[in-house]
Specification:
Elements: H1 2-6, H2 10-27, H3 30-46, H4 50-66, H5 70-86, H6 90-107, H7 110-126, H8 130-147, H9 150-166, H10 170-183, H11 192-208, H12 212-225, H13 233-249, H14 253-266, H15 270-286, H16 290-306, H17 313-330, H18 332-343, H19 347-364
Helix pairs in contact: 2-3, 3-4, 3-5, 4-5, 5-6, 5-7, 6-7, 7-8, 8-9, 9-10, 9-11, 10-11, 11-12, 11-13, 12-13, 13-14, 13-15, 14-15, 14-19, 15-16, 15-19, 16-17, 16-18, 16-19, 17-18
């Protein structure tokens, strides 16, 4: 179950972990049950079932502490931090990450320590505290190097590359992405999922540089390299968002709308929903739905502000230009009205409304085939 999860094979990981839990419960083996529940929670988290994952992980944590299995307890808390983060309970996510960091530092559990540091770094990154995020990521990198785990070294290198990328430091980001790929050779036992994610980072980077041909080639390679991309919802959202951006940049508006519809439909975490709503807004505007585009942006902006997230430096100019163009297209008064409507619309309702609007356009224009 653990192995299938790391290879992004969610359809295999969940039933394997469920079988492990059933066997451990049947044997009345609490130590084995703690690890089986940890595997199940880990696999459910990977496919976006965060609430279910939390239930099993909390039980795993309690059993691990009861049976004196500190490594299992630390790993459970590390994954729990991610689940709370994805369901937008930031205070609890930060508390779990901090507790895991303290415990893992004391025990020397480098894998749990690295994971918790990265989780904490993501939370700092979201709110624009890039200096703190980079410090946490660099410490995580040192932990993974001490542990000698190629896959986790590659993963943290990619994470640092992404942090530099969103700050607009493209050349530095490229170095980290390429260093991650160098460790991603199958000879080095690198799981394909890590390799695919790094290729996606490079695809995004080349897209921002305006090299759409290279960006598309890297996207295609990432999809071929992924063990089972359709098993993991965040992977579907991530790749389809990039595919839509490329289609729109190449003026294939029909394909862009189709891709954004798939991306938004697969988005589960609040951060992914915000990103997809903003992309969908641009596509709706392309198809003449300018009012709806502004509504989606208003809802996304309210959700971003409510969670403390910021528009990252590499996006700021484009985001400002998008808003200004919509103000010109609608006029100040109509724009203000649509924006207020969006601000009053909960982000999950905005997601449903955007999906319905896109589906109607696809149906009306026979674009969904």
């Amino acid at each position: 179950g653990f192995l299938a999860t790391e290879q992004r094979c969610g359809s295999e990981a969940v039933p394997l972990a469920e079988r492990a839990v059933a066997i451990a419960r049947g044997a009345d083996d609490l130590r084995a049950l703690a690890w089986a529940l940890l595997s199940l929670g880990n696999s459910l988290s990977a496919v976006g079932r965060f609430e279910d994952a939390r239930t099993h992980l909390e039980e795993a944590l309690a059993l691990a502490e009861q049976t004196g299995q500190r490594p299992a307890a630390e790993l459970a808390e590390h994954v729990l931090a991610g689940c709370y983060y994805e369901t937008d309970n930031r205070p609890e996510a930060m508390r779990r990450a901090e507790h895991c960091i303290i415990s893992a530092r004391a025990s020397g559990n480098l894998r749990a320590l690295s994971g918790a540091l990265v989780s904490q770094g993501w939370m700092k990154e979201d709110v624009g505290d890039y200096t703190s995020a980079m410090d946490l990521f660099q410490e995580a990198l040192e932990c993974t190097r001490q542990a000698g785990d190629f896959s986790f070294i590659a993963g943290v290198l990619r994470t640092i590359g992404h942090c530099l990328f969103i700050q607009g430091e493209f050349e530095q980001a490229r170095t980290y992405f390429e260093d991650s790929l160098a460790l991603g050779d199958p000879v080095q036992h690198e799981p394909e999922a890590w390799l695919a994610s790094t290729l996606m980072g490079l695809s995004n980077l080349h897209f921002e540089l305006g090299d759409y041909t290279t960006a598309r080639a890297l996207l295609d390679k990432a999809l071929r390299s992924s063990a089972a991309p359709n098993d993991v919802t965040d992977w579907v959202s991530y790749t389809m968002l990039q595919a839509g951006n490329l289609a729109r940049a190449e003026d294939d508006r029909c394909a862009a709308l189709r891709c954004f519809h798939k991306a938004l439909g697969a988005a589960l975490s609040i951060g992914d929903v915000i990103r997809c709503l903003e992309a969908m807004a641009a596509s709706l505007d392309d198809h003449g739905e300018t009012h709806e585009a502004v509504v989606m942006l208003g809802s996304a902006d309210k959700a971003r502000g409510g969670t403390g997230r910021v528009v990252h430096p590499y996006q700021r100019q484009r985001y400002a230009q998008q808003l200004e163009a919509l103000k010109v297209a609608l006029g100040q008064a109509a724009f203000a009205g649509a924006w207020a409507e969006g601000v009053a619309l909960p982000v999950e309702e905005a997601k449903s409304r955007a999906l319905e609007a896109a589906a109607a356009l696809l149906s009306a224009n026979d674009l969904g085939r």
